[in-house]
């Protein structure tokens, strides 16, 4: 786990580029102030990013007297990046330019039969080709980032374990490389979400952030010192499988009382069933339809729906309060389809619940926010993996 | 929370010095390999540490032909550092040389009356003077690091909240400065423990570590990327106040079901009382005597003691398993007086309990160890605060 000087250079290039994307056009001294790096280091890094074709010279700044300062800007036209969100029931692809603005999308539903690894790779590659042929026409594709749920061996490009398809050790990148000629980068949705918030969302400019991802499963993307925390086996963030109730509800992971069994979509619906086994909300159709029905019932003041929201907030407040007490982050960002569906109403009950559970000092220091990223944050984050890959010394100049 | 270039320089100086302490005498290229920094950066940092009088030139390395390589070593004689562990019932002071070898100690019991802030500062200052006059004779004292339980404002030198003396906003460093002429540095015991393990203990050379401190209270010192994680308000690590049992045992913090209420010394004794309200273990005297009696009873196979150990391991296994799932550390180090007293017997039951609760991949990646630091790790860590303070650019050359 030793950081090499190459890792440090990649991290510093990313840091400078992230600030350049936020503030283009920008001078080198302004980048030095924003990043905390020395002016000499910033000058070197900017030179490398110009060489890579990611930044371009962009005229001069008014300096009110002295020598005019050169400006640099992100070269949005310098290439295209592809981000892929592989989920339980779909694959979603976004193509973005170097300023990470969306150029185009593709979406395909996946069926249980698509769980065959070779077939899954073909379906993913088809969606990537579909999106890039339409959106990236004439631009060089610098890389493809893929977010795959479950446990991921990032360096090896292997899906170590994916519960949805019962995959164990599937060499996903090797399978994809048979179809796609681009540099490929693999990681999991928690890492994608935290990278998306760090570069473009509610964690911009923050050092220490937690991105709470609420969906069918739940997890927490962690950032410390301004970068994603991956852990010793790239498994960090399995907050969904931390204990909220010792010996509580059984979890599909084989343990009991996991956070996920209370605040994941199936857990919330179980809470509804415990409150009112005959609730019409449980007959709304699939899980997504049931959550939509729950959100609508909360809006119209349905007592069971409101009780389920309060009970969920009690659990979520304790579980997020635990993250606040342990990690003392600057910001906790709520993301994922369940958070998007319940939105403001969830935030309004979770904030006081966290304040009740967390200690006063870290509670006063933290902001709890909904993700401001409108598009799919997982595919945006995955596109950022490809950008970070392209910035790695030795990856080869994209031009 | 923006890192400044000064912070980065301090961190890099610490990184180089930490490796130099571990491997003195050592060549500059070896330091570059060990730290991941470039050879040019290491050459600059070594120059600064020579200038500060912390390193000295130490001859040449056999190079089997080519130009002989210069070696540097820690200048143990270059000064003295003082580490102070302020606990609920005592103040413990250690004086160390620049290789952080112990030169001398002082110890004083504290009574509830010592909770008056001015009086506490006087008692602490007396103990520091007592130790330095005997141990540091002829050496310049480069700084004094103080570990104070509770919530600490590190930059301001203020004890924000200390439960033992019901302190709120006591300007401890300002009070101590009336008695002590040295540079003073304040932080909490969790930070002291993690710094001690990073520099001298079971987390040496690791990037991501968790130091679990088991005493009357419990907490977790966190390290990411090779340095201590402090959080947005220097409150990170309040693992003792994360939820193990939602709505469980009441905690002195006002919440319920906190980890501390199950695995802190009073929590363990409560478990004994739940198992056998008439147990002789509960009549052994104060809490320390009761834990000694428990350790002895475990050794002789007493059924209540063994049941209490198993129940504690079940709780501790779940709570440490949560840390493993969330943070995916390389190592979890058990420290604190309760861990020292129960020792090997605790480790033997905690390891399988963690394996049961943690997910397979992060569980396979983590080592669970007892702290190898024989002396008081809190005062050793506090002395390291003083060393890191002396390494900060602008702190003034210690010579």
From TrEMBL, chains A, B:
SUPFAM superfamilies xref list: Actin-like ATPase domain, Winged helix' DNA-binding domain
UniProt-listed PANTHER family: BIFUNCTIONAL UDP-N-ACETYLGLUCOSAMINE 2-EPIMERASE_N-ACETYLMANNOSAMINE KINASE, ROK (REPRESSOR, ORF, KINASE) FAMILY
Protein's UniProt name: ROK family protein
InterPro entries linked: ATPase_NBD (IPR043129), ROK (IPR000600), ROK_cs (IPR049874), WH-like_DNA-bd_sf (IPR036388), WH_DNA-bd_sf (IPR036390)
Family the entry assigns: Belongs to the ROK (NagC/XylR) family.
Native organism: Streptomyces millisiae
Pfam families the record matches: ROK
